[in-house]
Write a structure and sequence with these properties.
Length: 115
Amino acid sequence: MYYVLKVVITTLLIVAISEVSKRSSLIGAILASVPLVSVMAMLWLYVDTKDIEKVSALSTSVFWLVLPSLVLFVLLPVLLKFGWGFYVSLCASISVTVLSYFVMVSALNYFGVKL
């Protein structure tokens, strides 16, 4: 039952942001840009494990991986402005973002930062 509650709360949050965005892209963007998913993941992790080391490690990893995730938000509107279709633009943006994650993780490993 607890697992179902976590899924329902998380799902409702995503649906709420989507619905708010239909009315106001600014408010939707503010809600979406707040790291609610990360905060909820840390909350659920702590509630499940009571392990602050795991929460700390997750928080640090999220910090480093936010940087390559920004590629999606830069590339998607650029591709759309160039006339690419939505789904093609989204897939291309996600693909380049995944590549950016690999580059970031490799660079962090090179400098001794372990995620």
